[in-house]
Amino acid sequence: MQRFLMASEGGHESGGMSGYISHHLTYLANKVQHGLFDINVLHLDTIFFSILCGLLFLIPFYFAARRSTAGVPGRFQAFVEMLVEFVEEQAKGMVHGKLTYIAPLALSVFVWVALMNAIDLLPVDLLPWIAHNIFHIDYLRPLPTADLNGTFGMAIAVLLLVVFYNIKVKGIGGWLHQWVTAPFGMVKITANPLTWLGAIVLAVVNALFTAIEYVGQTLSHGMRLFGNMYAGELIFFLIAGLGGTATVLGMAGHLIMGSVWAIFHILIVLLQAFIFMMLTLAYVGQAHEHH
Amino acid sequence: MNLNATLFVQLAVFFVLSWVTMKFIWPPLIAAIDERRKKIAEGLASAEKADKSLAEAKASATVVLKEAHAQASKIIEQANRRSNELVEEARGTAIAEGQRLIGAAREQVELDSNRARAELSQQVAAIAVSGASKLLGREIDAKTHADLLDKLALEIERG
Fold first, then answer.
1. What is the DSSP letter of B150?
2. What is the C-alpha to C-alpha distance for residues A288 and A99, in angstroms, rounded to an integer?
């Protein structure tokens, strides 16, 4: 940590802190980003740690599943089963339909997001330090859920699922019908031309609101997780900056505040993963409801 | 805000993870959980059944025990009665035997005393005869004085 602070502060005490933070906020990318959206850029750190967390979820759970018996379960199997039962209960409560895909999806989302969030609990300079000293990589942001690409990738995946289940449950016609009739309903069309006009206006307004609803839920879904994890990460940087002053007061502050924030962050890590799973289930569940 | 192709990679990873979970992780775990749940339900049901049969067994045991108690007390009563009878019988026999023995002893004693008395009277008679003959200075013929001797013996006997 100290190494980075010194490397980035360039001798200035005040510029050091922002330099340190902006260094930590720089992704390991294959190219320099141009504009808000650049299709040619990949954040290698986000991808690497996402897949790593995915494997950290899949491999132990796969072995637990393969060795699972109906007899007395081992401790890890009991833990996995507890999670499975918990997630299945939530899925049953939120989605009224077939759960063959949705319940496993909820489990994988919950554990995966929790694991990715948990990277935030590692010392902020540990992984960048390893990257720098062993792999000679200068920039690394290991927290995939503090990357908008990471959270929006998942939120958009959920949006695709919502579209899929809407069409699967209601049919394409039923879904389109819902676009023009919800949330404000539809006037009864009679011989009166005024009702035709009313129907068109209502259809447009309904379609607009439905579009806003889908965009809004996807944005808030991705942003909520990103915002929580990004803010948590920033506070860890600031606390680490305290220790970086190398004064007794700063280091004591680092120790105390870092401990307090890390303990509090355990709650956030799990809570945000839980909220992300519950919102996924809520949106998919809504797709199953007929209006 | 750096949005880029990472988003699509993350989207793909999302679907791969959930697909693998659906295919390889969820079904065996749910199967194990459901099977165990069934086993537990069966275990509870059989435990309940066992409880019921235990209660039944207890009830029948109580009945059997009560019967056994009744029978036992009856047997004890009978035994008591029989023992009393035996004691009474034995006492009766013993008294009879004792009396028989006493009677026999008494008879024997009488017999012996009679015999002794007869002997004694004879000896006394003989002594009397010999004494008398010495006194008279001549032989007394026992045959000629038999009447006298007998009378004497009778007197001694009476005396």
1. H
2. 11
Q: Which residue of B has its CA nearest to A62?
A: B25
Phi, psi of A38 (to 5 degrees): -130, 110
First to last CA, chain A: 56
Are A64 and B13 within 8 A, CB to CB? no
What ipTM, to 2 d.p.?
0.87
Model pLDDT for residues A188-238, shown as the tens digit of each residue? 888 888 888 888 999 999 999 999 999 999 999 999 999 999 999 999 999
Would the pTM count as exceeding 0.95? no
- Residue A36 class from Cβ within 10 Å (0-12 exposed, 13-18 middle, 19+ buried)? exposed
Classify B63 as helix, strand or coil: helix
Q: Among B11, B26, B31, whose Cβ lies nearest the Cβ of A107?
A: B26
Chain-chain contact of B13 with A80 (C-beta, under 8 angstroms): no
- Give the dihedral sign, CA A41/A45/A49/A52: positive
* A100-149 pLDDT, tens digit each: 999 999 999 999 999 999 999 998 889 999 898 999 888 899 999 999 99
